Amino acid sequence: MKQYLRQLPAVHELQKDPRFDSLKTAYNLNGVQLTKFLQREISSLRQRLLAKELAIEEVAPDFARQLFRSVEVQISLWQEDRLARVINGTGTVLHTNLGRSRLSDAAIEHVVRTAANYSNLEYHLMEGKRGSRHDIIEDLLIEATGAEAVMVVNNNAAAVFLILSALAKQREVIVSRGQLVEIGGSFRVSSIMEESGARLVEVGTTNKTHLFDYEQALSEETAMIMKVHTSNFKMIGFTKTVETEELAKLMEKHKDVLFYEDLGSGALYDFKKHGIGDEPLVREVIESGVDLVSFSGDKLLGGPQAGLIAGKKELIDRLKKHQLARVLRIDKMTLAALEETLKSYLAGPEKIAELPTVRDIIRPAADIKIQAQSFISSLQSSSGKYHSELQESTSQIGGGTMPGVEIPTFIAAIAHENLSADQLSIRLRQTKPAIVSRIQDEQVCIDFRTIDCSEMEALLAGFLASE
């Protein structure tokens, strides 16, 4: 083995090889970059040989050939997009792992225009002086939510942190035990409250909290009552919670205590009229008497990742002036996407229904059935290796939104004659674009609720490439 390892070519010899210059040209690399790839591959090849992961007979006749071949593979992988396009065949509309909301065409176009040019992000064009990014879309948000004032930060977790830090630091915040939620990434309300400097006061029990629990906990040290909308889980059975309207009436007797509701998902469109969930509208929550409400931009709103804070102007002004506001501020492209998303809401029902998130959630199962049947027909006529059948199923909203809500849908349940469902799903994830599916009863299932008509050709090509 040692005599073979001594035959591994030195880097300076490989740099003289014609294949070195060919790779530089083909992949637009400089000598330093390509040399680093070669060094890593030489080290990797040596380790694999010593560990007997690779037989010496496979590479000994021509080490240089093996090295350049491996280096080309690694360069190709390295130059691929890290953030890659994915076809979402899971049927989960707000799939957190897949980026949640898809933006509307108008939002995408505005993002591109804003990214390609200078903008008035913090400049008053009429006055010719410095402005504030907080002003850019505040009027649209006020119109959409009915709040006195609104500001935007980079996500809803940031909104929660800012509100607690700016308005309740070193003071008590009352929260029902049943609302001490944990969301994705181990984000806990109790932990974020501790980090903000606010002091948590738990009331009630896990399954039952009454109005008198809040009343008894109020003290001179109370800065805020915080209601956390349980958007990522649902309790059923022997339960009791205090509604927003009840707490708002209690707060009328305690004007020095703030009432803040973290809505989490935050809907501007009434999905209830389609029989989907019971998510409250942001406008309704504000009208019920809360001082502040926060919610996400990339969930039911259907826009970019952002945390929106709406409520009393005096409180919003205090938040805007807080030092954390700069730390948590959003960028120009997020503002551009959010602006066009809000304009769709203000333009009326037809424009709202064009937002991909809203469209996918309220899409009739009958339309999905037609699309699924079309795909099954195309797949069966293009390949003899797949068995496909149409099945009724249900889709989920996802993204920690509307827990327990399932929407009727249709799926293509697909089996390969030689591959297991796991093997096929792996191959599909390796296509370009990657196809993410779900597995049921040893079949790969594609839910067409989250498949755009423009993706049908790529979806079919991915299955054919995975034969």
Automatic annotation (TrEMBL):
Catalytic activity reported: L-seryl-tRNA(Sec) + selenophosphate + H(+) = L-selenocysteinyl-tRNA(Sec) + phosphate
Cellular localisation: Cytoplasm
Keyword Transferase: yes
Cofactor: pyridoxal 5'-phosphate
Chain positions with N6-(pyridoxal phosphate)lysine modification: K299
Superkingdom of the organism of origin: Bacteria
InterPro entries (UniProt xref): PyrdxlP-dep_Trfase, PyrdxlP-dep_Trfase_major, SelA-like, SelA_trans
Pathway(s) it belongs to: Aminoacyl-tRNA biosynthesis; selenocysteinyl-tRNA(Sec) biosynthesis; selenocysteinyl-tRNA(Sec) from L-seryl-tRNA(Sec) (bacterial route): step 1/1
Cited Pfam families: SelA
Residues of the signal peptide: none
Enzyme Commission number: 2.9.1.1
Function comment: Converts seryl-tRNA(Sec) to selenocysteinyl-tRNA(Sec) required for selenoprotein biosynthesis.
Protein name, per record: L-seryl-tRNA(Sec) selenium transferase
Species assigned in the record: Planococcus antarcticus DSM 14505
Lineage: Bacteria, Bacillati, Bacillota, Bacilli, Bacillales
